[in-house]
Structure formats: C-alpha cells, structure tokens
Design brief:
Helix content: 25-40%
Order of helices and strands: HEEEEHEEEEEEEHEEEHHHHEEE
InterPro entries: Cell_wall_hydrolase_SleB (IPR011105), Cu_amine_oxidase-like_N (IPR012854), Mao_N_sf (IPR036582), SleB_dom1 (IPR042047)
CATH superfamily of the largest domain: Copper amine oxidase-like, N-terminal domain
CATH architecture of the largest domain: 2-Layer Sandwich
Shape: elongated
Largest sheet: 5 strands, antiparallel
Pfam families: Cu_amine_oxidN1, Hydrolase_2
CATH topology of the largest domain: Copper Amine Oxidase, Chain A, domain 1
Low-confidence stretches: 1-35, 142-154
Distance between the termini: 68 Å
CATH class of the largest domain: Alpha Beta
Oligomer: single chain
C-alpha cells in the first residue's frame, strides 16, 4: 500500500494507550555524564531512543500530527510514520514491524533503539546485564540515576573519569585479549586500590611510578578504548572477579616472585599475588 493511503488510514485512528514506564536513566557517555530523558528510555528489557532527540543528532526532520497522533520523520530523502502505541511503521516502501510498540513520556515519542539503528544506519548492541548500549563502536553506559539504586554487587563507587581511565589501561595492557583477560587486568587495578601497599584511588594506582608504563604514553589521555575494554572495566567496578588477590601481572614470569605467589596464566600473561 502506498504511503499516502497509509497516512489517510492513520489520520482516522484515535489511539488511547496506557503505558507503564521504567525508571529514569542516567547516560554516561565515555567521560561525559548526561541526564537527558529525551535521548534514551528503558522499559523492561527494551531500550528506546527519543525520536526527536535522535533526529536532532542526525539532522533529520520530525513533524507531529495531533489529529493522527503520529510523528512523521524525514531523513535522507526517506519518510517514516510512527503511531503512538504501535509497532508498525509506514515507510516509502511499505509497512515495517518493529520489535515492540512506541511509547510516550511527557509528550515525547520513543522508538525501539533497534529500529532507530536501522533508520540512521548505525550498529547497535545492548547488554541488559551490564547496562551497556554500544552504538557504532562508541559506548553508552546506562545506569540508574541514584547511586543507591546501583546493583548490590557494585564494588567501587566510580566516576565517569575513572571508568574511562581504567578502560584505557585495560585496552593497552590486555591488548587484543578476551573479555576474561581484560577483566582480570581491571581486577588487578582495583585489588591494588583496596590494598594498603598501593595508592587508594584508581588514578593513583594507574599512574604510580614504574607500575603501568602504558599510562605514560603520550596518547593515553586521548585514547578511545574498544567497547570490550569499557565492558571489562565496568564488570570489575560492578564486582565481577576473574582473578582474586592478584596485584601483579606480566607477559613473562617474574624472577623476583616465588611459585607460591603465582596464581594463573591468562592468555599469555602471568598473574601474581
């Protein structure tokens, strides 16, 4: 059916929808924290993007029809019609079904993020357990607004800067290792923070003289870590322990460490107490 016919059909629909919303979400993007309920919303296991907010980001146009109770999106010469409370989208080429219905909040229309990824042609992955949404290789970390709503397993009340700093170190030290190895490296940093023999902050541990040479690379403060390195840092902060008690690791065995201090080898790196 052609777009004009669908628009006529939509105009005669008067929708009345009751929606139950999830908690507000704080968005921490790399080292920037943004509280913007227009951008991202979570309801149950589904993550939504604000139709207008994303249109502003990508230079698209959105108009709203009170009569149709529908939003009209125009992007790159393509047209989309989103109804309130419907999973059906009218496009130039026909009707498309989204994973779930649109939702509204304070007059704003939210669309499943997976469909916005298709509209704006970006890659999108969401990890419900870790509250991480990855768009085009960049990482959005989704967390509750209040610290006391954090998972009870939260190990360390980290800042956005500490998350980025730890992710950078993990990226350089674990290189192309698996998420297991990357998390183990992050564990070592936090183990040191908690140990009386080392500085008691993430920054202090990472930049302690002679400990982590990659932290002194000129590019360290501008490095954009891989999504897996962000994930490993977040896992460690939230309490996941891959390797307990480890305070050191190296790509070759330490000559000054005894066999009793050795814990395990993870993908070529030796971890010690």
């Amino acid at each position: 059916m052609h777009l004009k016919k669908w628009i006529v059909f939509i105009v005669i629909l008067i929708l009345s929808v009751n929606v139950v919303f999830a908690e507000d979400i704080l968005i921490a993007y790399q080292d920037q924290s943004v509280v913007d309920e227009r951008l991202v919303w979570q309801d149950g296991e589904t993550v939504y993007g604000g139709l207008v907010a994303f249109a502003e980001m990508y230079g698209a146009q959105v108009t709203w029809s009170d009569v149709a109770q529908a939003a009209y999106l125009k992007h790159m010469g393509r047209n989309y019609v989103f109804e309130i409370g419907s999973s059906a989208v009218v496009t130039d080429t026909g009707l498309v079904k989204m994973e779930t219905e649109t939702v509204t909040l304070e007059g704003r229309l939210f669309v499943p993020m997976s469909y916005l990824a298709a509209v704006y042609d970006f890659d999108y992955v969401y990890d419900e357990a870790l509250k991480i949404a990855t768009l085009d290789g960049e990482t959005l970390v989704l967390m509750p607004e209040q610290l006391d709503e954090m998972p009870v397993s939260l190990r360390y009340a980290y800042t956005d800067e500490e998350l980025l700093m730890l992710a950078r170190l993990v990226d350089l030290e674990a290189r192309d290792g698996s998420i297991l190895k990357k998390t183990a490296v992050a564990n070592v940093v936090l183990n040191r923070v908690e140990h009386t023999g080392f500085p008691n902050t993430v920054e202090g541990v990472i930049f302690q003289k002679g400990q982590f040479p990659p932290a002194y690379y000129s590019s360290f403060n501008t490095l954009e870590p891989k999504p897996e390195s962000f994930e490993a840092a977040l896992r460690a902060f939230e309490g996941e322990v891959v390797i307990e008690e480890a305070l050191y690791f190296n790509y070759i065995p330490f000559s000054w460490k005894s066999d009793s201090d050795f814990i395990k080898n993870i993908e070529g790196d030796y971890f010690y107490r």
